[in-house]
Each structure stands twice: as structure tokens, then as C-alpha cells.
Amino acid sequence: MTPFRFALGAAVALGIASGAALAAGDLSRQSPIEMTVDLGAPGKHEFAPKQLRLETGKLYKLILRNTSNDPHYFTSHAFSQMVFTRKVQVTQQQNGKPVTLAEFKGAIREIEVYPGQSAEWWLVPVAAGRASDLRCDIKTSDGKTHAELGMLGEIIIE
Ligand SMILES: [Cu+2]
């Protein structure tokens, strides 16, 4: 029985070792890839860039920056189903330095950013695909949504 037991022990040890080599660990703790999206600009209702490309398994710090005079949404239900959210941070410039005002954790579906402010969405894409439903549905005074005025976009996860 001794040789058999030895063989079994070796197989178990090998299995544990190869398992450890394959696991990538906590993907949400990588150093983030920064990506900035402008939500509108003075007199413009648009996302810039209009198309984002991300890769699964990488941590992104998606900075949603609103330099316009209107509030804007970053809404994509398809995208929200393809990512793991580590946190959303609200930051503010104080004496030329970014200061974190609040952090939110849990599943996020949409983010509204007010004029002159920004939010950081820290996320890891977990599924590949194309989210073509990025939009801002805030209405202007004449009843049209920003999406109808061209505030639409697409996120591709490869
Ligand atoms: Cu908008």
C-alpha cells in the first residue's frame, strides 16, 4: 500500500501547486488603467470619446468628468451587466489636490455627474461583448433627451 499512498500524495500536491499557478488572485486589486470620459462640454450634449474599449480581467478607473453646465448621466444597462464594480468614488479638487468625498460599493447601474464635478468608477469587466446602449436621458427644457441630441455611445469589451 505504501507506493500507492505515495503516488496519491504526489498527485494531490501537484494539483495544489498547478492550481496556485493558474489562479490570478484578486483582479480588483491590480493597479488601475485610467480612462477619462467627458460627459458633455459647454453647449454640447455628447460623450467624448463616444466609443470605449476595455478588456476583461483588468481593473479600470473610469473617470466620468462633467465640464459642462448641465448634469449628465452615464447609463448603460448592458455594460453594468458585464462588469464587477469595486467602488465608485466621488472626488473634489481642494487646493489643487483631489480629495475623496465618498465611496460607494456594490452593483452600479448608472451614474449622474453634476456640472463641474467628476466621479470615478473602479471596475473589472468580466464578460466580453458590445454595450451599444450608453446614453444620457436627462431632458432639456424643450422636452428632448440628451440622447436624442446625440448623447449616445458604445462600450466594447474584448
Ligand atoms: Cu446629458
Task: Describe the fold and architecture.
By secondary structure, this protein is an alpha+beta fold. It has a single domain, classed as Cupredoxins -  blue copper proteins (Immunoglobulin-like, Sandwich), CATH 2.60.40.420. Helix content is 16%, strand content 46%. It contains two helices and eleven strands. The strands form three sheets. It has a six-stranded mixed sheet, with no helix packed on it. Strand 1 and strand 2 form a beta hairpin. The chain is globular, with a radius of gyration of 21 Å. The termini are far apart. The mean pLDDT is 89. Bound molecules: copper (II) ion. Copper (II) ion (CU) binds next to strand 5.
User: Strand order within the widest sheet?
Assistant: 2-1-4-9-6-7
pLDDT < 50 runs, ≥5 residues: none
Query: Which secondary-structure class do the elements indicate?
Result: alpha+beta
CATH H-level homologous superfamily name: Cupredoxins -  blue copper proteins
Task: Output mean pLDDT.
Answer: 89
Number of strands: 11
> What's the CATH architecture?
Sandwich
Spatial extent as radius of gyration? 21 Å
The overall number of domains is 1
- Major sheet summary line: 6 strands, mixed
Order of helix and strand elements from N to C terminus: HEEEEEHEEEEEE
User: Which ligands occur here?
Assistant: copper (II) ion
The CATH topology turns out to be: Immunoglobulin-like
Measured by DSSP, the beta-strand proportion falls in over 45%
**Shape summary:** globular
* Amount of helix: 10-25%
The end-to-end span amounts to: 51 Å
